[in-house]
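USER: For my understanding, would you kindly supply a protein sequence with its structure tokens?

ASSISTANT:
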Amino acid sequence: MASSPRLPLLAFLLVLLLVFSAMAEAGGSGRLRPSECQPRCTYRCSATSHKKPCMFFCLKCCKKCLCVPPGTYGNKQVCPCYNNWKTKEGKPKCP
């Protein structure tokens, strides 16, 4: 009966794993299909006055990273690849 005290710990760890898995999936990082990029980028670029360049770079970033941050601005931490891709000058490449 030495393994009995381990059972609650294993159950707790399993629940913790499921919670973290659900959180990662909610972020959507790298989980989009390329066909989902167009509608996500259309919404992402809807609030800017520079729609053509925004769409160009958003689609390029989405196809590489398979992720578009939620909202029309910010929230880039949700998509690390999208957030960390920089231009030659060191500026953010993705809108």
